[in-house]
Amino acid sequence: MEITNEQLELVNSRIKALRRADSFYGKRLEEYGIDHVDSAEDFRKLPFSEKKDLRDAYPLGLMSVPEEEIVRIHSSSGTTGKPVIVPYTKKDVEDWALLFARCYEMAGVTKLDRVQITPGYGLWTAGIGFQAGCEKLGAMAVPMGPGNTEKQLQMMMDMKSTVLCATSSYALLLAEEIEKRGIGDRIHLRKGIIGSERWSEKMRKSICEKLGIEAYDIYGLTEIYGPGIGISCDAHDGIHYWDDYVYIEIIDPQTGETLPDGEWGEIVITTLRKEGAPLIRFRTHDLSRILPGACPCGSKFPRLDTIQGRTDDMVKIKGVNLFPAQIEEILRTFPEVSSEYQIHISHLDGKDTMRLYVETNGSVDFLDLAKRIAERVKSRIGFTPLVKVVEIGVLPRSEKKTKRVIDTRYE
Ligand code: ZN
What we know:
Low-confidence stretches: none
Helix content: 25-40%
Number of helices: 11
Bound molecules: zinc ion
Oligomer: single chain
C-alpha cells in the first residue's frame, strides 16, 4: 500500500519532532541527512527502527516532547534484557482510546454492552487500553484484570457480561470451565475481543461454540499505543487497521525491501500522530501481508491478514519465503495426518532441498499420501518438497515450543 501525500505530511511533522527532540531516531535522521520526505521513494529510504534501539533508549530516551507534556508511561517486559519504556502525552492517551473505541465498534459492540476485561492492568498496555476504549465508546466496563477464574465466572453471570476481552488461551480456559460446571445457560456473552497471539482455527471454533460468541482478533503492540490499532470485522477475513494513525508496510525480513500487497513478510509500522514516542519504520517481526482488494464488510480501512507468527520462524528456500504456519495450513486439509510435523532444509548438490516429515497411522498408503501432500505444497507454495510419512509418535514431542524447522544449510 503506497504511502499517501496526507500520510507523508504527517510523517514529516513526526520527523521534525524527532529531530528537535534529538532522540535516538532524531540522531539517526541527522546522520542520514534527512529532514523531510517528499515521495514514497523518499519514505522507503528512511532507516528502520528496532526493538533494540528502544531498549538502548531505556529509561526515557524515547521521549520526544518536553517532560511536562508526558502524562503516563507503559512498558513492554521482554524476556531478555532491559524493558522498553514508552511515554504518552495526553493526546496519545486520548487517541489510543479513540482507536480502541473504533475496534469495539467494528466488532459490533454498543453502549448497551457490558464488557468484561480480563487482560492485565499496570505497566503493560493491555487492560487499560481495553477499558479506555470501552469508556470512550460508552459501554460498561467490568474491569476484572487477569486470573481468579471463580470471581470471573461469578461476575460474568451476575453482571450478565455480553463481551469478553481476553487472550485466546484464557478465553479457552473460561470456556472449558463454563462447560465443566454446566453453567452455560447463565452466561450472556455474545462477542469476544481476543488478543492477537496466533491461535488455530480449531481453538477458535471451540471457544466460539462453548461461549456462544462471535470472536474478533485485535492487533497492536506496546511500542505503538498497545492493542487497538486494528481488528477483524464481521467478514472475518483479515484485520482492518487505522491508516490515519499508522502507516503499515510489509518488508522482506532478509533484504529489508518493501513488498507489494498480497506478499507475506514482516509488518513495519510508522506512527503518524504519536507525540510522546513517535516511531518511524518500526520492525515488529510479526509476520503477515496486506490483503489486496475491498473487504466485503464495506469498510474502507485497509487489511492485514491474520498474524502468522514471527519472522524469526521464517526461512527462504528456492527464493520463496516459507514459514511453518503455511505448512500447518496445508496439513490441516489432510485429516489422515497428526498435528506434528518437521521441516528439514538442507543444501545438496548446489540446490536447496526441503524434506517434510509428517505422521499418520498405519491405515493409509504412505507413498500415495506423500505424493498428495507434495502436490498440494507445490500448488500452494510453489516448490515441491520431499515428503516423508512416518508412524504416529515418531516425531519428537515437546512441552515447550516444538522446533518445527531444522535448517542445516549454513552449518
Ligand atoms: Zn471488513
